[in-house]
């Protein structure tokens, strides 16, 4: 008699995400918007949440044949997030995952750490790191109750090599990796997975305007694959980590940087 698991030879696709409901923070623009659109293209009902209006994101998703909820909330305020989660559940009847993408980046001022404004330091930690805790607190009880779900936190490749005069950003993104690993341990017994995606320099209108062609070319020269990283390249990895195809991946920091940095051995 065979002792193999019943599903050992079951080759049905496990990356089918149709019908799932996932909250994406920071979804009004940039990478968050692209992640939301990519998930919707795979049949996910996307709850697009941002402190800014997410109407443009929802319009794009619906024009592409997808479904999305237009939510407005502050990821640094627990009650604001919980209101959004309650709306998701009341509308779709479920919630299956969370993407913590909300972040401060372009508005942060580069300056020596001795001159760093403590107010900006605290705000960066609140939006970039503490929000991960607060959003997870709002979503996790429902994932635990159904013994299924996935959370993806967006950090940055900058954590791997540091960055001069940008301590508030590097520190806040570094914290995300620690939060991910702690949450993975706490939620693993409930079959809830938690991972981090750390993008390299992603080519967007914002990064083009901020860094210019010459700087971006220097970054690309450090990559093994010398092509610009597109937002959709990050979104594809996020989608994979939210799907059942990654059911045994948790507590990991996935570098999506075309090989510019390969992490520890």
TrEMBL record:
Coiled coil: none annotated. InterPro entries: NAD(P)-bd_dom_sf (IPR036291), Sc_DH/Rdtase_CS (IPR020904), SDR_fam (IPR002347). The keyword Lipid biosynthesis does not apply. The keyword Transferase does not apply. Keywords: Oxidoreductase. Pfam families: adh_short_C2. Transmembrane segments: none annotated. It comes from the Bacteria. Belongs to the short-chain dehydrogenases/reductases (SDR) family. This is 3-oxoacyl-ACP reductase FabG. It comes from Leifsonella bigeumensis.
């Amino acid at each position: 008699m065979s002792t193999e698991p019943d599903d050992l030879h079951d080759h049905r696709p496990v990356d089918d995400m149709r019908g799932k409901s996932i909250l994406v923070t920071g979804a009004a623009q940039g990478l968050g918007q692209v992640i939301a659109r990519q998930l919707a293209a795979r049949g996910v009902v996307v709850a697009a949440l941002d402190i800014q209006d997410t109407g443009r994101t929802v319009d794009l998703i619906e024009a592409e044949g997808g479904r999305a909820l237009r939510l407005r909330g502050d990821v640094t305020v627990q009650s604001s997030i919980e209101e959004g989660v309650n709306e998701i559940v009341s509308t779709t009847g479920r919630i299956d995952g969370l993407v913590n993408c909300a972040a401060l980046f372009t508005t942060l001022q580069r300056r020596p750490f001795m001159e760093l404004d403590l107010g900006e330091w605290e705000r960066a930690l609140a939006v970039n790191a503490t929000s991960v805790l607060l959003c997870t607190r709002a979503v996790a009880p429902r994932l635990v109750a159904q013994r299924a779900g996935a959370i993806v936190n967006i950090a940055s490749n900058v954590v791997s090599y540091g960055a001069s005069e940008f301590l508030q950003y590097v520190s806040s993104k570094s914290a995300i990796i620690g939060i991910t690993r702690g949450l993975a341990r706490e939620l693993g017994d409930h079959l809830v997975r938690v991972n981090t995606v750390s993008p390299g320099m992603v080519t967007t209108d914002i990064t083009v305007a901020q860094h210019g062609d010459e700087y971006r070319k220097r970054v690309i020269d450090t990559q093994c694959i010398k092509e610009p990283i597109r937002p959709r390249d990050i979104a594809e990895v996020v989608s994979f980590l939210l799907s059942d195809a990654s059911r045994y991946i948790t507590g990991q920091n996935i570098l999506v940087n075309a090989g510019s940095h390969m992490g520890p051995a």
